[in-house]
Design brief:
The protein is mainly alpha-helical and about 110 residues long. The protein is built from four helices and two strands; from the N terminus they run ββαααα. A hairpin with a 4-residue loop joins strand 1 and strand 2.
Length: about 110
């Protein structure tokens, strides 16, 4: 997989972490992202992290940044969430969803243990 920028390191006394720097990405793109809304920074980081030059291209990164000032620059982008958060205080909706998936598997003759 082709990377847009190299990862940066953050060292603590217990562990070393790698991350993609949006500051480095903005330099490479020659764009100022300081005033970019936080939600778009999250999308931009996701694109930088998953950049491959084929599905996610430099034009997608530029579109996220440039669309703030020019809505006509908006294009469809690939979004690959690393995690999904569900607001659920009881756990019941998640268990119900799992039970519904299990029942659907059984109805189709599939192995529900999978």
């Amino acid at each position: 997989m082709k990377k847009f920028i190299q990862t940066s390191q953050l060292k603590t006394s217990q562990k070393e972490y790698q991350f993609y720097s949006l500051a480095e990405a903005s330099k490479k793109l020659n764009r100022n992202i300081e005033n970019l809304p936080y939600s778009l920074k999250i999308l931009l980081e996701n694109l930088v992290r998953n950049f491959d030059g084929e599905i996610i291209k430099e034009e997608h990164l530029l579109a996220v940044i440039d669309s703030v000032n020019n809505p006509e620059k908006r294009i469809e982008i690939a979004f690959s969430p690393a995690r999904v958060l569900m607001q659920d205080f009881t756990g019941v909706p998640a268990v119900v969803d799992l039970a519904a998936m299990r029942d659907s598997f059984i109805a189709k003759g599939a192995d529900a243990t999978k």
